[in-house]
Design a protein that fits this description.
heterodimer; A: 2 domains; seven-stranded antiparallel sheet; 6 helices; about 20% helix; B: about 60 residues; alpha+beta; 1 helix
Chain lengths: ~350, ~60
């Protein structure tokens, strides 16, 4: 199992998923209930994240109710304010001092709801990696989330080595050139970023791009991956017709890889484009088509995890080749971050 | 955001070889990524492997 990396920000939801209904998500094994405070005028409410277990009998608060900005446990009515402090218990005036649930640091940015898992005193919103195309003017995005019953490391492996597009996603986003083209890998150790680039000078145009751009012939295709370990993955994609680089069709493919529990991961995905932005048909096509592609990965990784679970013993043998250079780099960065996240932190006061 | 500590590995076009460059400037050629990362992460003590001057692309070759 890939070790969890604590003291990091993780995407727990899209902003549009969090409203006046409680939403339950589990991040790094911690069940969390999300909701949005009441709106004031045109202002959007603030996202609140509380531990998703009532202090009384552990009933899930995400299956409970809101009373204004307070959460009322759906079992016995223990009531919590936005900080997680219990402000009411049934039948008595005295609220026990220990009656509170943890609240989590939350930042809403680039359409994501980021939550900090670790020591709240270390949460620095400035450290959250950016995906500005998700909300930038002139860009249109489609997005979704699929849970996978697999170790989050399997999804990291999958995304760091796009040669699988040729085989798992052939006829959708994969063409022979993806697997055939050599990659360049860079690791920025200090920043915790792995970059993998693959530039195809003369490639078949897969249906994903042919149908969204209208390009009929062969293309120059660039894939530049930027993985901000542990959670945010950006694939900067640019295509032009071969011999005509007057206009680059840019697509930003975003993933947030959020470990849920052991052997479970949330696969947040988005496709953003800067062309045909007013064309609803293209938007619908990309949403449906990419959802199909994501489900191909989901099915494959669910199957892979079952196969790995059936392996005898605690470890299994792998064989890595050139295409795995970036994936191996990501594994190592994750292992380092996991180790750092477990260390006690010295504080000066 | 980029720091000064960047490792780079190129898959040499037309070959099965990987060419690596550590942030300290040392370079190395290897035949598989596990061997390459082992060499790379040994920084600053990159193991010197037998080199064959004048034959670019020879596997397991280091230069400083």
């Amino acid at each position: 199992m890939t070790a969890f990396v604590r003291n990091q920000w993780y995407v727990a939801a899209y902003g549009y998923e969090v409203g006046r209904e409680l939403l339950g998500r589990t991040v790094l094994g911690e069940p969390i209930a999300f909701y949005r405070t009441e709106t004031a005028g045109d202002e959007q409410g603030t996202v609140i994240a509380l531990a998703d277990r009532c202090v009384h009998r552990r009933f899930p608060l995400s299956e409970s109710n809101l009373d204004g900005d307070r959460v009322v446990c759906g079992y016995h009515g223990f009531t919590y304010d936005t900080t997680g402090t219990c402000v009411y218990v049934p039948g008595q005036k005295r609220v026990p001092r220990t009656a509170r649930v943890s609240s989590y640091p939350v930042v809403e940015q680039d359409s994501f709801v980021w939550v900090w898992i670790g020591d709240p005193a270390l949460a620095d919103p400035g450290a959250i990696p950016r995906a500005p195309h998700l909300t930038a003017p002139g860009w249109v995005s489609v997005s979704g989330m699929e849970p996978i019953d697999g170790d989050y490391g399997l999804l990291v492996d999958n995304l760091m080595d796009l040669s699988h597009e040729t085989y798992l996603h052939g006829g959708y986003i994969g063409t022979p050139e993806v697997a055939e083209t050599p990659i360049t890998t860079e690791v920025d150790e200090g920043a915790g970023i792995v970059r993998v680039s693959r530039h195809m000078l003369d490639a078949e145009c897969p249906p994903f791009y042919a149908r969204s751009t209208g390009i009929e012939g062969r293309i120059t295709r660039r894939q530049d991956i930027e993985y901000h370990a542990p959670c945010l993955y950006l694939l900067h994609s640019g295509i032009t017709p071969v011999g005509d680089d007057s206009h680059v069709f840019r697509t930003e493919i975003t993933y947030a890889i959020t470990p849920s529990a052991e052997g479970k991961v949330y696969d947040f995905w988005a496709v953003s484009r800067d062309f045909a932005v007013d064309d609803e048909e293209v938007t619908t096509f990309l949403r449906d088509f990419n959802h199909t592609v994501v489900m191909q990965d989901v099915d494959a990784l669910n199957l892979l995890q079952l196969a790995l679970d059936a392996e005898p013993g605690d470890s299994y043998q792998e064989l890595s080749i050139n295409i795995d250079t970036g994936g191996l780099a990501a594994r190592r960065i994750l292992a380092r971050l996991a180790e750092e996240g477990e260390k006690p932190v010295e504080r000066t006061s | 955001m980029t720091t000064g500590e960047v490792y780079r590995i190129d898959w040499v076009p037309g070959t099965d070889l990987l060419h690596g460059r550590c942030h300290c400037g040392t370079e190395h050629t290897a035949q598989n990524p596990e061997a390459m990362w082992s060499w790379m992460l040994a920084h600053p003590d990159h193991p010197l492997t037998p080199s064959t001057p004048g034959t670019p692309g020879t596997p397991e070759r280091s230069t400083r």
